[in-house]
Every structure is written in structure tokens, then in C-alpha cells.
Amino acid sequence: GQQLNQSPQSMFIQEGEDVSMNCTSSSIFNTWLWYKQDPGEGPVLLIALYKAGELTSNGRLTAQFGITRKDSFLNISASIPSDVGIYFCAGPTLSGNTGKLIFGQGTTLQVKP
Amino acid sequence: NAGVTQTPKFQVLKTGQSMTLQCAQDMNHEYMSWYRQDPGMGLRLIHYSVGAGITDQGEVPNGYNVSRSTTEDFPLRLLSAAPSQTSVYFCASSYTGGPKYFGPGTRLLVL
Q1: B38 in reach of chain A (CB within 8 A)
Q2: How far, in Å, CA of A78 to CA of A18, rounded?
Q3: pLDDT above 80: residue A1
Q4: Contact residues, chain B, for A4 at CB < 8 Å
Q5: Closest CA in chain A for residue B39
Q6: Cβ contact (<8 Å) for A42 and B42?
Q7: What DSSP assignment string belongs to A40-93?
């Protein structure tokens, strides 16, 4: 079945550093979504990507829809302590109905002040 | 707007008991869905709905039932709780497609 693999699984960085994480699949996706989950809370949608090659920013966050449509990348510039959390990528299942998503296992980010 | 609300926040059940997890949204969203989150496994879709009266199964539907009688409410029923259903459950909603707003979650422990 479809799977999304995120790497790295966890990161421990210094405040101010830039962060890069990615999400890959053996299947083609038509949409990529990136979420952040703060400890003890539900995920929050950060960025949605709908077109191969698309590059979209949300403040210090930038996400890209890979040209092959099998991967996506999320970058965080100049990290701050509130960036701590789990970052998930997600995409629609083979049904194509974006109401049915599969999620990656997450990248846990810790930021040292 | 209250957004997406879930009750209860915490619940302990004994094996075999049944219960209903409540989810409500006040944003008039058509799409609502239920996910469970287990350590190291991300979120997995249980059931979802594209509007009142319409539901469909997700990745892990066994042991759970849903109904959507109104746009606002999307309850999740555990028919006979099992320890494997110990998890954190999230309800989500959006106007279309992938979930935009998640609730705060229900933490369930089945003994």
C-alpha cells in the first residue's frame, strides 16, 4: 500500500539554525500537506502544495512539491524555540479523494535556546 | 467560533465496554474525519465523511462506527473496546479535501 517516509525521524538543533526535512513515497501524489503538532495538541496545517515543482512559503517555512511527485521538502529558516514539535507530511490515498489522507510518521524537532 | 471540539479529553475503559467519542465543529465544514495517533506511527484515518448522511472507511475502520446526521457532529463509536484501541483520537474538519482544523484530541486507555 501507499506509505510516506519522513526523514530524519528526529532533529536536535541550536536556535537560529536552518532546518530541512523531507517526505518520500514510492507512489505519485497530487497533493502534499505539511502539518505541525505541538505537544499535547492536535496538528495544525502549515502549507498545502498542489502542483509539481511548486514552492510555497508561510513565514519562515518553505515547502516544495518535488518534480517527480514522489517527494516533498519542508525548510524552516532561523529556528526559534516555538518551532519545537512534530512535523508531519500527508497526502491523499490512491482514491484521489483528498478527504482520505495518509500521514508520514513525523519528524520530531527540538530547538536548544 | 469554537472550532473543532472533542469530548471527553480523557477516558479509561475496560475491555468489552462501549463508548462514543464526540466531535463537533461550528464552521459549517462538509468534510470531517477521525484519526488515531499511536507512537511512531503518525496519524491513521479511521472513518471520514464528506457531508451529512455520507460516511466512508479509512485505513483502520475495524471496531469503530460513525454516523453523520448533521453537518456539525461526527461521533465515533467504539463497539467493544480492546487494548489495541488505546490511542489518542483526533477529529478534524475542512471545507474540502484534507483536514485543516484538528480538535484537541481524546486520550483513551483500554485496560
Answers
A1: no
A2: 5
A3: no
A4: 42
A5: A105
A6: no
A7: TS-EEEEEEE-STT-EEEETTEEEEE-TTSSEEEEEE-S--GGG-EEEEEEEE-
Cα B105 from chain centroid (whole Å): 9
Residues near A64 by beta carbon (within 8 Å), at least 6 away in sequence: A49, A53, A54, A55, A56, A72, A73
CB B98 within 8 A of CB A98: yes
Is the previous residue joined to A92 through a cis bond, with omega within 30 degrees of 0? no
The DSSP element (H or E) to which B88 belongs, if any, is strand B87-94
B85: three-class secondary structure by DSSP: helix
* Residue written as grid cell 481524546: B106
- Residue B33 CA, chain-centre distance (Å), reads 6
Question: Hey, CA dihedral for A21, A73, A105, A1, is it positive or negative?
Answer: negative
> What separation, in Å, do the N-terminal and C-terminal C-alpha atoms of chain B show?
36
Residues 6+ apart with CB under 8 A from A35: A43, A44, A45, A46, A87, A88, A89, A90, A103
**Each residue's pLDDT tens digit, A53-84:** 999 999 999 999 999 999 999 999 999 999 99
B90: contact with A, CB 8 A cutoff: yes
B57-103 pLDDT tens trace: 998 999 999 999 999 999 999 999 999 999 999 999 988 767 889 99
Task: Check if the beta carbon of residue B102 is closer than 8 Å to that of residue B90.
Answer: yes
Report CA-CA distances (Å) from A74 to A104, B20, B73, B77: 13, 37, 34, 36
Least Cα distance to A88 among A65, A60, A70, A108 occurs for A108
